[in-house]
Amino acid sequence: NDARGTGVSDAIIFLTPVGRPRYATVAQARMRDVPADGAGRVVKSAADGSFSALLPVGRYSIAAFKAGYEVSVSEVNLQARNL
Q1: Which residue has the higher pLDDT, 39 or 11?
Q2: d(CA 70, CA 72)
């Protein structure tokens, strides 16, 4: 978010696994876009600042970058039942 609390468009978002992500066999078969090696993702934020990515269950470091803004880094722990 910017200083006014508005989402930042076109920010580059790095989603990096922390530790080793856990893969459910069924989820792995369903989510063809999920990298099999547990590698992270790089996505760009939408006009409203939102972003999404398919990731296996696990902990991720999220870093957002855009020229003219401070770098934002946080961590998320994805939990799921069988997916």
Answers
A1: 11
A2: 6
